[in-house]
Amino acid sequence: ETRSRRAASMEEAAAGEDKAGHGPNGHAEGPAAEGRLGGGARLRGCRGFLRRNALVLLTVSGVVAGVALGAAVRGAALSSAQIAYLAFPGELLLRMLRMVILPLVVCSLVSGAASLDTRSLGRLGGIALAYFLGTTLLASGLAVALGFIVRPGAGASALNTPGLGLPGALPTVRKETVDSFLDLVRNLFPANLVAAAFRTYATDYKMLLRNTTSGNVTLEKIPVGTEIEGMNILGLVLFALVLGVALKKLGQEGEDLIRFFNSFNEATMVLVSWIMWYVPIGIMFLVGSKIVEMEDIVLLVTSLGKYIFASILGHFIHGGIILPLIYFAATRQNPYRFLLGLITPFATAFATCSSSATLPSMIKCIEENNGVDKRISRFILPIGATVNMDGAAIFQCMAAVFIAQLNNVDLNPGQIFTILVTATASSVGAAGVPAGGVLTIAIILEAIGLPTNDLSLILAVDWIVDRTTTVVNVEGDALGAGILNYLNEKDKKIREQELKEVTVEAIANNKSETETSPLVTHKNPVSNTSSTADPESKESVL
């Protein structure tokens, strides 16, 4: 019986092994099944990766396809009208992005300022202002230093402007530096909010003939205020911030309007998420049409190659080394992991050359991919898109040094200081649109006494340099938002810890009635059982 039971158990064990390791045909299925399961998991992981990063991959593919399209169409000798037709899908992208800038900036700033308490608003605003001005000043100093090291204008004195496909020198309109800064202050306080959505104040000049007592005729330049095309974002930003603080002060009465702006902001972000799926198509035709427009790229690169190299090198050093170091010093976190989630806004900035047009996608990606608090991102990023122009400061200072070397002018320390201060201050009000920094270069050249005739050379390569300029601009905004988000979370944890400590001390004092203030009367007429009662159940009245 023992032998028979042992044989039966061995047969059952063998049958179990056969079921576990072999199929009905006698083939081993264990490793194969595991392999199929592993392959299915890898396939699902690959599909999930593609689904999560579909927009990023499509955007980068759009840039590559745009370069290929421009290189392929260049040999067809298209007319100006045909080039305009080629750029039409890209023009639609720019129009859609500009369409949502106004509601996005105003609503996000109103809701952001209203959601933060006054102490946090003042603290975060002060840190943001110091960060923006500090990084812009660093960028200006880096550009001037690189200009003296590389000397981009040393061998470019024989440039042929008509050969670059430009009509000639720009008309010189001498604008006083003082009037430029006064216009900046005037635009902070727009006289008409509706007009500020599409017009900006600018000073023009009228020449009057004056007869002196000696019979001589003199010309007098009189400043005249005019309105030019372009959104006055600076004035809208200031108004939205003040309105948000005022609604916060109203308390209960202002909550309905705050909810309205919050809902408006969320609806705008939904529109942005829809527009983002058109970005790859628009980018492809924008990049392709820009490549077709240039008449002689080889002549352009060989003539202005040192200037292009110096500008892009400055952008690489500032955006790839200095800004990440500042982020790491403030947060002790990996900055490149943070930037990895912002590939789509960077590609949009590269294609559109507009910080304002990149703002919708930047807000969407920095909240979803990097987990930045909505109150921080929608408060800081619109301000940064208007105020923080690190890439533009590098581009403008390098252009000023290049034109000085082109005209064989040795800059003295006073002129260098003027370039740094003027570039830092004027970049605050620079328009976040393509080629907006060229107007600021004219202000810098006038401030140091250099001719503005050579600005046409800057315009010749603006479409190349302006792309890395915009990428560095939006990178500075994003890292600033990440730093402020980290500091806000850290401050919140400190406040919670202090609150816990205060609560623990209050409970400990309730255990002993003799240690409390004599002004506190305890209403608990329990005799000896009071020591066993819950200390939090005691009721005290001052």
TrEMBL record:
PROSITE patterns: NA_DICARBOXYL_SYMP_1, NA_DICARBOXYL_SYMP_2. Residues 509-534 have a biased composition (Polar residues). Pfam families: SDF. It is found in: Melanosome; Membrane. Its main location: other. Residues 1-36, 508-542 are annotated as: Disordered. Coiled coil: none annotated. InterPro entries: DAACS, Na-dicarboxylate_symporter, Na-dicarboxylate_symporter_CS, Na:dicarbo_symporter_sf. One of its GO terms (cellular component) is melanosome. The chain crosses the membrane at residues 54-76, 96-116, 128-150, 230-247, 267-287, 307-330, 336-359. It is a multi-pass membrane protein. Keywords: Acetylation, Glycoprotein, Membrane, Phosphoprotein, Symport, Transmembrane, Transmembrane helix, Transport. GO terms for molecular function: L-alanine transmembrane transporter activity; L-aspartate transmembrane transporter activity; L-serine transmembrane transporter activity; L-threonine transmembrane transporter activity; symporter activity. Signal peptide: none annotated. GO terms for biological process: L-glutamate transmembrane transport. PANTHER family: NEUTRAL AMINO ACID TRANSPORTER A, SODIUM/DICARBOXYLATE SYMPORTER-RELATED. Belongs to the dicarboxylate/amino acid:cation symporter (DAACS) (TC 2.A.23) family. This is Amino acid transporter. It comes from Tachuris rubrigastra.
